[in-house]
Structure formats: C-alpha cells, structure tokens
C-alpha cells in the first residue's frame, strides 16, 4: 500500500497575510519589526483581523509570570479562531520559547500551534514557513544560544521618524530574579561599523531619533576589544548629520562609568535622560539580587550624572518584595528614591521565575506585604514626579511629535528630550516634527501644552537643554 504524501499547501492571496502580537520589552518589539520586514519582503501584507490572516505570530516575553499566563491564554483562544479560519498558521516565538519546559507544554497541550522558534533563530522563519507549506507538519526549532547577530534583516519600522537599533544581544549578569540570561544567552555585541551604517541609513530615510537597545548597553563592546565601548559608540553616532536625538536602554548601574557619563554630557544629540534601574535601595537586598553594587554606588552614580549632565531626567526600575526584604530594607529603598529624586519609576512586585535562584530562596514575601509596600513606594514616587513636572510649568520644550492622542484625535502626543510625555492640540501633519511647545499644565504623569509659533524658536539651539523659560 502506498503511503499518502502530505498535501503541499498552495498559498492564495489571503494566506499571504499576517498579524504579529508582541509581548514584553523593546528588544522584542525590534525583533517583531524584523519578522515583519522579512514577511513583507516575501510578499506578505498585514491583516489585523486574525479570522482572516494567513499567519499569526505571538512574540512572547518571559520576564514576568503573568506575561506567561497571558500568552497561554492567547494560544488557547486560537483553538476557536482556527475553527473559523482553518488555514491559519499559528507561530509562537520569543523568550518563552527558550525555556524547554514551556516548549514541551506547547507541544503536548496546544495542537493549534504550528511553528515554534526562539530568540536566536527567528531569521529562519521564511525557511520554516516554506517547510511547513511543503510538509504540513508542525515545526519546532529553537536554538539554545548563538554567538553571532544576524545582520541585514529587513526591518519594517513602526515609525518613519524614530527607530530602535539593537546594539547587542544577551546578558552576562545573572541577577538572581531574572530569566533573561537563560532566554537571550550571553552578551554578543554588534560591530560598531554595522551599527553606524544602520543608523546612518535610518537617518537618510528621514529618521531623527534612534534608541540603542541592549540588556546592558554599558557593557557594549566588552567582547570586541579595548577600543570598542559604549562611550565611543555614542561619540561616533553623534557625528551623523541630521540625526537629532540618541536614546539608549538599559544602563546597568554597575557599568555606568564616568567615561559613559562624559560622553552623554558632551554629545549634543544624546538626550539628557537616563533610565537607571536600581531595583532596590538596600545593599543587603542588592547583594541577594546579585546586582554587584551597593546603595553608596547608586548615590555616587546619580550624583555624577547630575553634576555632569544639566537638566538630566533619571528614571528607574524597582522590585518590591524580593525574598527576604525586611521593613528596614524597604525603608532604605524609600530613602534612596528620595535622595535620587527619580523623575519616575517602573515598579514591580517580585514574582517568582522558575529556574532562577531567587525562586527557591527562603523568606518569600507575602502578597499582602508586597502590595502594602508598593503602594507606599508609589506615593513617594508620584509626589516626586509631580514636583519635578511642576518645574516645566510655563517653560518651552522641544517635543518630537509621535502620534495623535489615543483619547482625542485633535490632540498630539510627543516627548521632550528628557522623556516627558507632552499632549497638545495639533494636526496629524505635525507627526514626526520637532516642535517647540509651551507647557500650560504640568501633571504627575504628563504635561499639557500649546504649540508656539515655530518661527520664534530654533529647536537646534536647545538640543540638550533643560526646559527654557517661555520668554527667554
Ligand atoms: S542585568 Fe540582570 S536584570 Fe538585566 S537582563 Fe541581565 S540578568 Fe536580567
């Protein structure tokens, strides 16, 4: 008896359509832009309705437990979607797929998933799709690690005027609560010439702002020899004509050297904004987190930043309720928040990530205590944010306009060089422009303003400044 051959799927126009859902951080967003770029190069078009799309990709994140739960909930829902749209190919990729137990769960419990790939081999999507079309069989292909970064992938950027540029992948730090070193592998830096070319090409296409991405940008180049480092990279990129703003994320406090701070201060295109995730203010907790700095180091770095970079905004990340965190430890965190005067913070309740050392530490903190502490933490942070934002009242700031406001199509929203969100009345035609805006109402989380006649201003003259008085 002859074996039946699996049917080769013939793609019609409807099948050549896709939708990507991205969970997690900017690195994932940038990966999704590359996946989208590859698909569009193959002739695929975006289709927002999953009931009509030929391919849906879930690009997952595993930093927090509830992100995992959301992804599984999403995958579950595709059982029904596939009943309405039986030709749909469902692909799942990203950080969660770097965990063998999660892949195993998908393979055994979620037959609706057709393709599984990881963070190191998403560039293989075109071949995987092709193989799937030919064989009609589920494909699971996850590389454990990679010591190279695939260059020259087409990137389908969300905004024409600003873009992410990944400068390195991976992390060597192994903070005890974090899953990233297990999902993104060890640090691998891109060659500076490659980064320079990518940024220069973006600028030639009309981009004015780039955000350099890495888990720890301050250790950029450690794997490339003495001359290659983050400070030098900033200085090189600062020479690109017509580039207006350089941002970066994220800076590990232990690697934020004076050389990097000097480069930020001296490069006029580098925004006077630093996201410095301290996670805790208690030296004892920081040790348990394996962060390799103390409370004194934090205060010293923040002091150096403020002395050298005028008008700088500093934001942070905080984890509340790390195992063993006592009331005294928590009070140390509140003290550091007050002393550092952070513009704002992303605050997180500690959540167990299976496979990390902190998951099995003694003295896990009850949820009620975590919630009580985070509320106290937010009270302090919001008071400081409100006070800092009041200093913008009646000032004129340079805003890069990003989009129309979600709640009101007659208003625009954009960001200052210090990362403050500014909302003001305006036309969609202003999106992508750098405008001078006078702040009329400073609120805790954003600023309201009004566009001032642009002929009265010279945006370039205030490239790395504090807000300037409206009448100066
Ligand atoms: S520095 Fe720490 S928190 Fe950041 S990605 Fe690396 S291990 Fe995770």
Automatic annotation (TrEMBL):
Cofactors (names): [4Fe-4S] cluster
Pfam families given in the database record: Radical_SAM, TRAM, UPF0004
UniProt cross-references to Gene3D superfamilies, sorted A to Z: Methylthiotransferase, N-terminal domain (3.40.50.12160), tm_1862 like domain (3.80.30.20)
Keywords, comma-separated and alphabetical: 4Fe-4S, Cytoplasm, Iron, Iron-sulfur, Metal-binding, S-adenosyl-L-methionine, Transferase, tRNA processing
Catalytic function, reaction form: N(6)-dimethylallyladenosine(37) in tRNA + (sulfur carrier)-SH + AH2 + 2 S-adenosyl-L-methionine = 2-methylsulfanyl-N(6)-dimethylallyladenosine(37) in tRNA + (sulfur carrier)-H + 5'-deoxyadenosine + L-methionine + A + S-adenosyl-L-homocysteine + 2 H(+)
UniProt domain MTTase N-terminal: residue ranges: 16-134
Family matches, as NCBIfam families: miaB-methiolase, MiaB/RimO family radical SAM methylthiotransferase
Function: Catalyzes the methylthiolation of N6-(dimethylallyl)adenosine (i(6)A), leading to the formation of 2-methylthio-N6-(dimethylallyl)adenosine (ms(2)i(6)A) at position 37 in tRNAs that read codons beginning with uridine.
Subunit architecture: Monomer.
HAMAP family cross-referenced by the UniProt entry: tRNA_metthiotr_MiaB
Protein name (Swiss-Prot/TrEMBL): tRNA-2-methylthio-N(6)-dimethylallyladenosine synthase
């Amino acid at each position: 008896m002859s074996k039946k051959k699996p049917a080769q799927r013939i793609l019609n126009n409807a099948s050549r359509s896709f939708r990507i859902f991205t969970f997690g951080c900017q690195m994932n967003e940038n990966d999704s832009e590359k996946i989208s770029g590859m698909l569009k190069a193959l002739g695929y078009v975006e289709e927002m309705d999953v009931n009509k799309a030929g391919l849906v990709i879930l690009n997952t994140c595993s930093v927090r437990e509830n992100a995992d739960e959301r992804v599984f909930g999403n995958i579950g829902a595709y059982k029904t979607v596939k009943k309405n749209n039986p030709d749909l190919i469902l692909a799942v990729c990203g950080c969660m797929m770097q965990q063998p137990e999660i892949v195993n769960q998908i393979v055994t419990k979620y037959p609706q998933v057709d393709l599984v790939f990881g963070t190191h081999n998403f560039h293989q999507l075109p071949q995987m799709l092709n193989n799937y079309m030919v064989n009609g069989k589920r494909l699971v292909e996850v590389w454990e690690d990679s010591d190279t970064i695939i260059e020259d992938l087409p990137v389908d950027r969300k905004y024409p005027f600003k873009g992410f540029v990944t400068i390195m992948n991976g992390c060597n730090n192994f903070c005890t609560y974090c899953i990233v070193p297990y999902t993104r592998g060890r640090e691998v830096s891109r060659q500076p010439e490659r980064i320079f070319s990518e940024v220069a090409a973006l600028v030639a296409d009309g981009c004015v702002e780039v955000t350099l991405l890495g888990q720890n940008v301050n250790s950029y180049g450690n794997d490339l020899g003495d001359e290659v480092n983050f400070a030098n990279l900033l200085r090189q990129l600062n020479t690109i004509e017509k580039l207006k703003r350089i941002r970066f994320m994220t800076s590990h406090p232990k690697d934020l050297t004076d050389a990097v701070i000097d480069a930020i201060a001296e490069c006029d295109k580098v925004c006077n904004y630093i996201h410095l995730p301290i996670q805790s203010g208690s030296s004892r907790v920081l040790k348990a987190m394996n962060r390799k700095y103390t409370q004194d180091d934090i205060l010293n770095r923040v002091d150096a930043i403020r002395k050298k970079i005028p008008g700088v905004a500093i934001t942070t990340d905080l984890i509340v309720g790390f195992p063993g965190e006592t009331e005294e430890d928590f009070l140390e965190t509140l003290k550091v928040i007050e002393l550092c005067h952070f513009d704002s913070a992303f605050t997180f309740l500690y959540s167990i990530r299976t496979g990390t050392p902190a998951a099995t530490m003694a003295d896990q903190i009850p949820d009620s205590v975590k919630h009580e502490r985070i509320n106290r933490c937010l009270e302090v942070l919001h008071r400081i944010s409100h006070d800092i934002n009041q200093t913008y009242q009646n000032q004129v700031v340079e805003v890069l306009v990003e989009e129309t406001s979600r709640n009101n199509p007659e208003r625009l929203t954009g960001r200052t060089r210090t990362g403050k969100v500014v909302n003001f009345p305006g036309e969609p035609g202003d999106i992508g422009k750098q405008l001078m805006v006078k702040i009329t109402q400073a609120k805790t989380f954003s600023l309201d303003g009004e566009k001032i006649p642009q002929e009265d201003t010279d945006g370039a003259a205030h490239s790395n400044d504090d807000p300037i008085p409206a009448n100066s």
